[in-house]
Design brief:
Elements: E1 9-13, H1 14-24, H2 37-53, E2 58-61, H3 69-73, H4 86-89, H5 92-101, E3 106-107, H6 114-127, E4 132-135, E5 149-153, E6 158-160, H7 162-169, H8 176-183, H9 198-214
Parallel strand pairs: 1-2, 1-4, 2-3, 4-5
Antiparallel strand pairs: 5-6
Keywords: DNA-binding, Hydrolase, Nuclease, Nucleotidyltransferase, Transferase
GO molecular function: 5'-3' exonuclease activity; 5'-flap endonuclease activity; DNA binding; DNA-directed DNA polymerase activity
EC number: 2.7.7.7
Length: about 240
């Protein structure tokens, strides 16, 4: 069981929770007929998080408007996603105002995603010995987990430390990027390597990790490339 250190820096993935709350809560409206369901969900989550952990330092991070550097690297990045629903878009600015009214710093940096901002802040805090609790529903964030950086998903009531990441994904946090790159990530429209699914990606990376651990003895890689279906030419 993961033990949350006292007084962690809490970083909230506002964009992740905004979408999740939109789909998890009924389409509520105020007396003027304006949509409020997603706001209600996010604010409830923030209130619960603050009451439970009583942080002295926290920030809520949202995606900024416009494209990011990933769109320049890969033109199909997230291109399969439908446009944001109008009734969700209408809740963004009011939600930002409410977060600020709660006294919480709100961050949105142009050209990058909320994930990037959270990752940077988490690593910088870790450097100075500050424990970090990242509140998110995004699996990509598992790459950040260390003994000092923990993930919590308040909507599913799950907490991930290093051991929990291995149990959930089959690879340690430092290999999450490679894991998703190999198998692909349908939520971001990342195709991955043809013929490589979750189990094959896990096997290849577990073999790689074992090989690295036994260096410099140079023992044979436990998993051979024959584990990968031959669906593309190999030179």
């Amino acid at each position: 069981m993961v033990q949350i250190p006292e007084n962690p820096l809490i970083l909230v993935d506002g964009s992740s929770y905004l979408y999740r709350a939109y789909h998890a809560f009924p389409p509520l409206t105020n007396s003027a007929g304006e949509p409020t369901g997603a706001m209600y969900g996010v604010l409830n989550m923030l209130r619960s998080l603050i009451m439970q952990y009583q942080p002295t330092h926290a920030a809520v991070v949202f995606d900024a408007k416009g494209k990011t550097f990933r769109d320049e690297l890969f033109e199909h990045y997230k291109s399969h996603r439908p446009p944001m629903p109008d009734d969700l878009r209408a809740q963004i600015e009011p939600l930002h105002a409410m977060v600020k009214a709660m006294g919480l710093p709100l961050l949105a940096v142009s050209g990058v995603e909320a994930d990037d901002v959270i990752g940077t802040l988490a690593r910088e805090a870790e450097k100075v010995g500050r424990p970090v609790l990242i509140s998110t529903g995004d699996k990509d964030m598992a790459q950040l987990v260390t003994p000092n950086i923990t993930l919590i998903n308040t909507m599913t009531n799950t907490i991930l430390g290093p051991d929990e990441v291995v149990n959930k994904y089959g690879v340690p946090p430092e290999l999450i990027i490679d894991f998703l790159a190999l198998m692909g990530d349908s939520s971001d429209n990342i195709p991955g390597v043809p013929g490589v699914g979750e189990k094959t990606a896990q096997a290849l990376l577990q073999g790689l990790a074992a090989w690295i651990r036994c260096t410099p003895s140079r023992k044979k890689l436990p998993v051979s490339l024959s584990a990968v279906p031959k669906r593309w030419p190999v030179s």
